[in-house]
Specification:
By secondary structure, the protein is mainly beta. About 10% of the residues lie in helices and about 30% in strands. The protein has a domain of about 120 residues: Sulfite Oxidase, Chain A, domain 2, CATH 3.90.420. The strands form 2 sheets. Strands 1, 4, 5, 8, 9 and 10 form a 6-stranded mixed sheet that branches. A 5-stranded mixed sheet has the order 3-2-11-6-7. It is globular. The N and C termini lie far apart (about 35 Å).
């Protein structure tokens, strides 16, 4: 007796050059979270960049919306192996938010409402590589996908695009976040399959 149901083909392999190794295309947008979904009203939301010296730069929701907005269309890749191509967002470039922030830091630790953290090299948040987004596919970003605002760092695995983000703490030394201390890779490059420590 076979252990595979007759006719079962398994997960289709895309063969498209747009996919990092080990990934498969999905038309859906899976929801993966480690805990309960925070509900943060826009009038209570704020974003804070704090430097290694303790200097803070703050934006309310109204102040965020008054900044120059961009509409990036990017591919996203989850460490659980799904990829979604051509996703469209709207938000503020991290270049805009970091402009005028004086710091000698090389790293950032993203903090989220609900307690989640993830670490990123500061260079990966600059030069048009990352955004603080509030809109997905033309609609307000739903809470299950990180609304009211999340990071978008599409060149790294999607756990680095922290949901429900409330700030960045700039640091001199790299400080692993929630998933990194649980064994996930410190950097998370999907093209190098950096899923776990040691990859």
């Amino acid at each position: 007796m076979g252990i595979v149901t007759p006719g079962f083909q398994g997960r289709p392999r895309s063969g498209t050059p747009d996919l990092p190794p080990g990934q498969y295309l999905t038309p859906d947008f899976p929801v993966l979270s480690a805990g309960p979904t925070p509900k943060v009203p826009q009038d209570q939301w704020e974003f804070v960049i704090s430097t290694e010296t303790g200097t803070e730069h703050r934006w309310s929701w109204a102040e965020l919306m008054a900044l120059p907005q961009e509409t990036p269309t990017v591919d996203i890749h989850c460490v659980t192996r799904w990829s979604k191509l051509g996703t469209t967002w709207r938000g503020v470039s991290l270049d805009t938010l970091l402009d005028g922030v004086e710091s000698a830091a090389d790293y950032a630790l993203a903090h989220s409402y609900g307690g989640y953290t993830t670490n990123l090299p500061l260079d990966d948040l600059r030069d048009g590589q990352a955004w603080l987004v509030h809109t997905y596919d033309g609609d307000d970003l739903p809470a299950e996908h990180g609304g009211p605002a999340r990071l978008l760092v599409p060149h790294l695995y999607f756990w680095k695009s922290a949901k429900w983000v409330r700030g960045l703490h700039l640091t001199i030394e790299d400080t692993p976040g929630f998933w990194e201390t649980a064994g996930y890779h410190d950097y998370g490059d999907p093209w190098r399959e950096q899923r776990y420590q040691g990859d």
